[in-house]
Amino acid sequence: MDESTMLEMAKLxxxxxxxxxxxxxxxxxxxxQLVRGYSGYDKQTGAIGVPIYQSSMFxxxxxxxxxxxxxxxxxxxxxxxxEDTLAMLEHGKKAWAYSSGMTAESILMKxxxxxxxxxxxxxxxxxxxRLFTLTYAEQYGLExxxxxxxxxEAVKQAIKPNTKAIFVETPSNPIMKVTDIQATADLIxxxxxxxxxxxTFLTPYFQTPIDLGADIVVHSGTxxxxxxxxxxxxxxxxKDESLxxxxxxxxxxxxxxxxxxxxxxxxxxxxxxxxxLERQQENAFKLFEFLSKHPKVxxxxxxxxxxxxxxxxxxxxxxxxxxxxxxxxxxxxxxxDLLNSLKLILFAESLGGCETFLTYPLMQTHGAIPEELxxxxxxxxxxxxxxxxxEDAGEIIAxxxxxxx
Length: 405
What we know:
The chain has 15 helices and twelve strands. It is of the alpha/beta class. A seven-stranded mixed β-sheet has the order 1-7-6-5-4-2-3, sandwiched between helices. A five-stranded mixed β-sheet has the order 8-9-12-11-10, covered by helices on one side.
């Protein structure tokens, strides 16, 4: 079956080609949306939990007749409910769910062609740098400039005639820089390009970049959206219909989509997203206060810090500050002792789960980034990144205190 036929079949299922924003659940409060999802419940059976359609293919009753589903690569009912829920939460038109955040980013880079230029936040996840540089720059001829996107003038200076997109992490990973989404969108739109925003740290619960002018939102759903450290997933959400056919074709052609059971687990997790993020943020404020006063800590990076250079910007474009904190020790030589002394906090390189994680970016998440760029943004031997969980805040602080001591 050719691509055009598959696309026509998919049109029979409305959500495959874009959600209806006037639907009942789309008009509800965000906390209610999180709990109910896009459809609210399974309309065929009345089941409150979305059924797991563990099927890779779907029957056509006769020639020329289809349910809209045919083969699992381009559509599955469980995954579709998850995709529609993400599109609704991000105020986008359509979403796709993938097997990882890196798969989602790879799909997006295929919207570009050899010779195109992309401006990228200089402070970002090392895996993204590796994907862009080793694969899409060295093998496919895309051009990338790593720029402090929290500095609008630097972004202006980096724009070239062949600039087709700006890719930003905001807040950034791990220095917590904040990019002005609306102003950056205006810059790239004047160039006729796309603004892509990685919304992993704040999720649509705290920030909806599409409302601020972003064309595309990307997520590592493995992190806060999952929140339970049991699913690898990634998402693309788009602002309008103009990119649907291209991304649909890329997704259908390459695969890399999220399976039905993992889609079900993600829907389960999203129900508690608001509760988790509120508790994690509450704990993060307490951890920030503790770390800011500790004699062994040189500096703390948290967007909820009133002295953060983009604090007011954060308050304008987000409804919360999240729970990611980075900090530097005065003596980098004490980092191994601190990590080896943890009793409650987990030494791991992910983030966003119910459990509190401490990560050493230099050796873990940012090892792929060249030393020159790492030092420029401040990722050095003394930097640690804390993903604050939902445990008792006093016990988290007590563990940090004994480990630092």
